[in-house]
Amino acid sequence: MRTRNKYRKPTILGCNAGSRYSTSVVVLSLLGCLILLHLYTYIHHTDRTGGQSQLRLNHHPQFIELQEVEEENIQIPPPKGKRSPRAAKRRPKRTTTLIDEFLDENSQLRHVFFPGHKKTIDPIQTPANESYYYYPGRIWLDTDGNPIQAHGGGIVYDKKSRTYYWYGEYKDGPTYQVHKKGAARVDIIGVGCYSSKDLWTWKHEGIVLAADETNETHDLHTSNVLERPKVIYNERTGKYVMWMHIDDANYTKAAAGVAISDTPDGPFDYLGSQRPHGYESRDMTVFKDDDGTAYLIYSSEDNSELHIGPLTEDYLNVTSVMRRILVGQHREAPALFKHEGTYYMITSGCTGWAPNEALAHAAESILGPWETIGNPCIGGNKMFRLTTFFAQSTFVLPLPGFPGSFIFMADRWNPADLRDSRYVWLPMIVAGPVDHPLEYSFEFPLWSRVSIYWHRKWRLPHGSSGF
Ligand SMILES: *[C@@H]1O[C@H](CO)[C@@H](O)[C@H](O)[C@H]1NC(C)=O
Ligand SMILES: *[C@@H]1O[C@H](CO)[C@@H](O)[C@H](O)[C@H]1NC(C)=O
Ligand SMILES: *[C@@H]1O[C@H](CO)[C@@H](O)[C@H](O)[C@H]1NC(C)=O
Ligand SMILES: *[C@@H]1O[C@H](CO)[C@@H](O)[C@H](O)[C@H]1NC(C)=O
Fold this sequence. Notes:
With 467 residues, this protein is α+β, with helices and mostly antiparallel strands. It has eight helices and 23 strands. The relative contact order is 0.14.
């Protein structure tokens, strides 16, 4: 066609015979434009969603190590001896699964889930510099040699002292049930605080918000529930603000409490609790955005949905703005983070102390809409991935200096002895395409994949956290 046109006499205005020629030119250039646009959005998009950071991370030998898929092959032993009532009640007739074994206090696999259980203290946990390894699920000791008590916790980096502060439930008391149908519980003792320069060596700073042992009408009375304390720093007021789930033993109060301190290591003054926006609030977290606006995110309406709304400038109250998100999805244990302008969140299902499948969600705007992008867990075995490695999300900490890399923090609850619940921290990387993209822009997904890699032991790459 082109050759034919080449020998055609040019006609005025390119009409007549030339019209076919110009049509194909128009079609071709349109095609070219589309291809260019596609290429542009692709490049633009990979940039925005972490293509670059993946490149950077992929070239870092220690990150290659962290992204290696580590398999677990655990054989379920034949049933023998008596099952604890907790496991027997759960699945009376069907074949046992790893979850049954996990919930069975008499399981022969107990040491797999709770290694170093009871008396033994693992020598690897000695804070010697050679052993800056995290062992998810083992007993973690503080610098005094005591097991760390910071369950359902979160971390704040204090710029002034260049120190990380880890806050969580101090549960070093006996586990019991108030009545037959009640959940296993430990009386409120308070919020434990630990400090660290390297995210590995943790010094106990004491109980920074303590239970009230005498006043039965006080939120913090020992008979109540204090869960998932999270602290954020307010640059405007110079105060450290703690939000937490406050409840009665039957979880009918469903409120959010707030406390305040001048210093990260407390003591925190308790200011009170409320049902935010007038709604039930159970599992919750707070998230501070780059612009200094902080948000409260909580499970509501019988845990069937999450609510999210900005806090006031002093972080001490909610505002009138609130959005319902993940409606009808029954998620709890939210942990929010942000990567290259996109908001991400990990949540768990609602199965009490028993572990379940984690899901990652993403949003362009923090108030939503939020899309569910799938199970982020990689490695272990199928049951590990379907139980968040037998743990439940609590917090996500960005690794400074390594964009797109995070520490995923989770709790491996031990319902038989809650004080002996373990920490499961794992490397999390946000990069690459999602498995089942739900939302497309020019046929390219809006979000990156969130990947949490199972490791029996791992350590932070050099350069992060002041190593
Ligand atoms: C620990 O660190 C010190 C000083 O940083 C060094 O001299 C020593 O060899 C290290 N020990 C181990 C076991 O790596
Ligand atoms: C007990 O706690 C309630 C609620 O915080 C408070 O109003 C009351 O003053 C407290 N009572 C005493 C004796 O401190
Ligand atoms: C919790 O529920 C039990 C049984 O329904 C009841 O006996 C108890 O009084 C309740 N406790 C609180 C603090 O509501
Ligand atoms: C929090 O804000 C609500 C209105 O959004 C208000 O009714 C309430 O009194 C405030 N609480 C405190 C402790 O300031």
